[in-house]
Amino acid sequence: MLDASLRELPDATPGGRLAENIMHFARVLRRAGLPIGPGQVLEALRAVAAVGLDNREDFYWTLHAVFVNRRDQRELFDQAFHIFWRNPDILGRMMSLMLPEMGAMQDNAPKGEEMSRRLAEALNPSNNKAKEQLEDEEITLDATLTWSANEVLAKKDFEKMSSEEIRAAVAAIQRMRLPAMEVKTRRYRASLTGSRVDMRRTLRAALRGGQGYIPLMKREKRVRRPPLVILCDISGSMERYSRMLLHFLHAVTNDRDRVFTFLFGTRLTNVTRYLRYKDVDEALARCGDAVNDWSGGTRIGHSLHEFNQYWSRRVLTQGAVVLMISDGLDRDEAAGLTIEMERLHKSCRRLIWLNPLLRFEGFQPKSVGIRAILPHVDEFRTIHNLESMKELVAALSLDAPRRQGGMRMFKDEAA
Amino acid sequence: MASQSAHLPTSVEETLTLLRNGNYLANRSLATALFLALKLNRPLFLEGEAGVGKTEIAKVLSATLGRKLLRLQCYEGLDVTTAVYEWNYSRQMVEIRMAEATGTGDKDALESNLFSDAFLIKRPLLQALEPDVAGPPILLIDELDRTDEPFEAYLLEILSDYQVTIPELGTIKAEHPPIVIITSNRTREIHDALKRRCFYHWVDYPTAERELEILKIRTPQAAEELSKEVVGFVHRLRKMDLFKQPGVAETIDWAHALTQLDVMSLDPEVINDTLGTLLKYQDDITKIQGSEASRILNDVRTELAAARA
User: Which residues of A touch B32 (CB under 8 A)?
Assistant: First the structure.
């Protein structure tokens, strides 16, 4: 590994011990998952020289300004700073103790949002234990904090997917392509038949030709796929579908850009970056590691609240389409669900609800959860077999009719 | 405008004083990041919730340093023709027509004439690269997260080398780089390549003491008692599960509104009437209005009484 070889190098940085230490500090941060290159180390040296060393606080914020560039890296930086600048050796030894785990994580270093949080926990001396113990701790903590004693916190074993049928289905899913539901952006591109005049190209063409006339060049609006946000239920009642759905989610994620995927049971987990792995097995294994509430209870209202509060403003931009995959069976008796669904509906371009229960003939929306969700979706479809997945794919490619929601409310009130 | 001759601060301490002179109370971490940005000529990237004073920094800097402020408000679909430069097409057309009419038709001369400085309409980013009598201008790129990724990529050249390439004219490079402040509300992640070229700072909500000081500066006409209650109330709101927590700007607005209503001290009725200046979502308002508001107010009062005793 590159890092290991770097560690072997003699300390030959000019500028005395401080420069050397800053370099080591940067290396520690890099191993912990912060994307720090040599350029930033040089920048840090320059910055420290500019601010001076009179004040520990200034020194802290100087390095902070250079090395941190996301909000969630702050805790990690903070801990690393305090440990390292008290005694660099301690941190070095700690890091080498944990190196096996780091090694596994290094592959994801640049994308490590969740990673760095876990590492921050690992770096904290108080729970500096082996990985398994850490996870045990987390699990006991969860069991006491979450509402349900029945919550099954077992990890899903993806190894067991081996039956012939499943394999065939998975292969079919992997071949699925989501055709683009495209929307016009506010950008233009050159075109022969566009409806607007491209003045810049027109004038250049006029000069190029010199035949005494000006050929009219056109441009048209660029189209682009809107971001897709998927909220997938992985609770006990959805267990039979979740494996297949994960394959579907992986295929969708790798087929287009700007797909964000969240899994929820009793709480919400963002698995977007795991699903970006090209290799489906690796992607699913990492999802399995990240999620702690496989096949437990469902708290749709609570999970949606979490999404609305922390994520919706970050991922539901630029006209995102939301796919919600859930059977609508809620252990919380749909507490708070109506409000959260309404908010979700109002913050996206289009909300599509996929419900595997819909396959039963004469399905009636009797459960409280389903009745709370239904008024706030633009489209309601089933997803329980390959056929329905294909139909969904077709549905996504259609240009959605403009939403009538707001108007309907006024009309109802007037009537 | 403050003194024209103001020069750049030479230490973190001076940066703090500079901002303080512009009625901006910054904490030391922000001052450090800003000082580095000024000293090492790199953009400052400010991220944080809405209403914590990110944009204000650029305005204050412009006022205290006496520099020109160029503001680029980002939006979806922002492109080169509105952000950097555009050719003045109608003038170019007229020029072509004139050349035809007078028959002085040297084509090459016409072309180099058409695509010259005279026909260039400069937009904020290009203006920022021009020398200014008062010193390099301050370029505020506001709410960068509102644009799409292609524009972000375009910024890379400007932010790292302070230069713009115009195909017809060549590369325009700033003699003295502008002071660049970029803000983002984090409605999406900005790419690392761009952040790497900047000094990053997350602007947090201030502590209660600092927010009280800010109120004293920004709404000096508010009664001392009222300011304390307002700050206590807002800080309690921020700890609650609200969709949008009130920022410093909302605190100031609220204190301002209350003084306009001649309120000397908060009471539940006044809170209910003016809650709209503080909370901007109907769900949040209904949650707080009424009994919850009086409960919070009582908490604040007992706390203030305890502090006084």
Answer: 51, 58, 61-62, 64-65
- Across the interface, of B36, B92, B241, the residue whose CB is closest to A62 is B36
pLDDT tens sequence across B97-148: 888 788 766 777 777 888 888 899 999 999 999 888 888 999 999 999 888 8
Question: Can you read off the two tokens belonging to residue A161?
Answer: 């997917």
Residue for token pair 């998927």: A230
Percent of chain A with pLDDT strictly greater than 90: 6
Across the interface, do B107 and A210 touch by the CB < 8 Å criterion? Answer: yes
Query: Between β-strands B138-142 and B179-184, what pairing exists: parallel, antiparallel or unpaired?
Result: parallel
Q: Quick one: DSSP state of residue A298?
A: -
Q: pTM for this one?
A: 0.75
Chain A touched by B107 (CB under 8 Å) = yes
Beta-carbon separation of B12 and A318 below 8 A = no
B76–A186 CB contact, under 8 Å:
yes
Rg of chain B's alpha carbons, rounded to an integer?
A: 24
- Among candidates B283, B302, B299, B186, which has minimal Cα distance to B235? B299
Instruction: Please give the angle made by the CA atoms of A112, A33 and A77, to the nearest 5 degrees.
Output: 110
Inter-chain residue contact B76 with A43, CB threshold 8 Å: no
Closest CA to A231 of A346, A115, A174, A312: A312
Cβ of B40 and A46 within 8 Å?
A: yes
The answer to whether B217 contacts chain A (CB < 8 Å) is no
- Exposed e or buried b for every residue in A282-315, given b needs 16+ CB within 10 A? ebbbbbbebbbbbbbbbbbbbbbbbbbbebbbeb
Of residues A137 and B21, more confidence is placed in: B21
| Every domain range in chain A assigned CATH 3.40.50.410 | 228-414
Residues in chain A within 8 Å Cβ distance of B114: 203, 207
What's the CA dihedral at A181, A185, A191, A192 to 10 degrees?
70
Is B79–A187 a contact, with Cβ atoms under 8 angstroms apart? Answer: yes
Which residue from B77, B89, B196 is facing A203, i.e. has the nearest CB?
Answer: B89
When pLDDT is averaged across residues A330-346 and rounded to a whole number, the result is: 83
Q: List, for residues A90-102, the tens digit of each pLDDT value.
A: 666 655 555 444 4
Q: Which fold has domain A228-414?
A: Rossmann fold (3.40.50)
The pLDDT of A251-263, averaged and rounded, is 84
